[in-house]
Design brief:
Elements: E1 3-7, E2 14-15, H1 19-32, H2 47-57, H3 64-81, H4 85-88, E3 90-91, H5 95-103, E4 108-112, H6 118-126, H7 148-163, E5 168-173, H8 176-184, E6 188-192, H9 199-204, E7 209-211, H10 217-224
Length: about 230
């Protein structure tokens, strides 16, 4: 039974301590010349979905001509500040132990499906050394598409080209958007109540499994490998 586990990043695996948000605002001003005053509930959104709305909040009605330059600047600014992430952010309970245990299994492939653009999503996990457990090449990222379910489908396609078909695909995330993306792509939704969404709300959204966090390492590994 070969399994593909797709991890969300923010508040599922790590908290980045606001470094990503700061890099985003700095890049926005660098590209547009407009002072950053943005406030937006980003949880579960993709950068391609969120960015036009934030540009509009700042009086820029059409974001498309700016996107390539903006994402390039955002990636560069985050890379320059990523050394701050381990000090100002944190790993969530059980994360490294779960990823390491799954990485040791020949029947499990792990990757990222995140609303972050690829450079930032990978950079966040790399700041904590988690990238060594993940095949980030086959992930789905917020600069692939605006629709999160499409990121799940894209990641599965990439992974199946690299590894062959999977018997089960699981998305692990902390928001109702993660759950909806999994359900929309026809895969298993595993929700963790480590973000701003209560467990009851994640369950009501249709998650197949809801966990308080990843702290029960043996139990989480058993669940994700179908041995629970």
């Amino acid at each position: 039974m070969q399994r593909l586990v797709m991890w969300d990043v923010d508040l599922t695996l790590i908290a980045a301590g606001g470094v990503g948000v700061e890099a985003y605002g700095t890049a926005f001003t660098a590209v547009t010349g407009v002072p950053w005053t943005g406030v937006f509930a980003a949880a579960g959104t993709t950068d391609l979905e969120m960015t036009p709305l934030l540009f509009a909040q700042h009086g820029i009605a059409e974001a498309t001509p700016h996107l390539e330059a903006f994402f390039t600047a955002y990636a560069a600014e985050f890379a320059a500040q990523s050394h701050r992430v381990p000090a100002e952010g944190r790993l969530l309970p059980g994360v490294e132990q779960v990823l390491a245990a799954l990485h040791a299994r020949p029947d499990v492939v792990q990757t990222l499906v995140t609303g972050n653009i690829a450079a930032v999503g990978i950079g966040k996990v790399a700041a904590f050394g988690l990238d060594r457990y993940l095949d980030t090449v086959v992930g789905g990222y917020g600069d692939d598409d605006a629709v999160r379910a499409t990121l799940v489908r894209r990641s599965r396609e990439r992974a199946e080209i690299a590894y062959g078909p999977f018997d089960e695909v699981l998305v692990v995330g902390d928001t109702v958007r993660d759950v909806a993306a999994a359900l929309g792509a026809g895969v298993t939704a595993v929700a963790v109540a480590t973000g701003h969404t209560p467990a009851a709300e994640l369950e009501a959204a249709g998650a197949h499994h809801v966990l308080p966090d990843l702290g029960d390492v043996d139990g989480v590994v058993a669940l994700l490998t179908g041995e629970a």
